[in-house]
C-alpha cells in the first residue's frame, strides 16, 4: 500500500487540492503519515485500533481526528462530506457494498471527489475476509475458516498459504463474495453512474468516482494492468 500512497493517492490529493480525506482502515497509520506529511488535507481516520493505538499516536497532531470504531457506523452518522475516501478496512462484500451505498445515499462524497479501495485483485477481489465474523449479518456471511489461500484454488488449504491467521471465505467467487464484486454490484445498483479504474499490482487499488464529475488524474495510466468500468472476469 505504500507504493499506492506515494505514487497514486498523494498525487491525486495534491492535484485536486482535496481538503478533507476520510480513511477507513489505517492499521498502524503508514498511509496516514504519508498523507499528513505530503498534503495539506485534514484527515478523519476510522479504525478499531486493534493493531495500534492511533488515538495515542496522533493525539498531538493537527489536521487529524481518530474515530475508534468501524467504517459503516461512522458513515451512518458522518455529517461533514469528504473530498476523498480511502477504504481499506473489512475486506468483504457486505461491508464494502454498504460503505459505498451509504456514501452515495448520504451524499458524503463531494463533487469531483474520489474513492480509493484497496484489495481489488487476488486474493480478496472474489473472496470475503472477516476480521470479526460475528459483526457481519448471517445472511451475508459465507462459510469461513482460519486457513490460508493459494492462488488458483477456490478452497482454503490446510497448512500455510496467504493470510491463514484471518477468517477467509471457504470458497472463491459467486454472488456477494469479495471486494471487487461489491464494487461492481454497487455500480450496477446506481445504473453505472460511477466510473472505475483498477490498478493490478500489490493486491490492487481501485479508483471509483462519479462519471459526471471526474477528478483530475496527475499521471498517465498504462494500459497494461488497468481495467475500467464493468464486471471483471474471475481472478
Task: Supply the key terms.
single chain; 235 residues; alpha/beta; Rossmann fold; eight-stranded mixed β-sheet; three-stranded antiparallel β-sheet; 6 helices; 11 strands
Provide a descriptive summary of the structure in words:
This protein is an alpha/beta fold and 235 residues long. It has a single domain (2-127, 174-227), classed as Rossmann fold (3-Layer(aba) Sandwich). The protein is built from six helices and eleven strands. It has helices at 2-16, 30-38, 54-57, 71-77, 93-105, 179-189; strands spanning 20-24, 42-47, 64-68, 82-87, 109-118, 129-130, 144-145, 167-169, 194-199, 205-210, 226-227. The strands form two sheets. An eight-stranded mixed β-sheet has the order 3-2-1-4-5-10-9-11, sandwiched between helices. A three-stranded antiparallel β-sheet has the order 6-8-7, with no helix packed on it. The two termini are 20 Å apart.
Estimate percent helicity. Answer: 25-40%
Strand content: 15-25%
Question: Helix count?
Answer: 6
Rg of Cα set: 17 Å
Q: What is the CATH class name?
A: Alpha Beta
CATH architecture label name: 3-Layer(aba) Sandwich
Order of helices and strands: HEHEHEHEHEEEEHEEE
Total tally of structural domains: 1
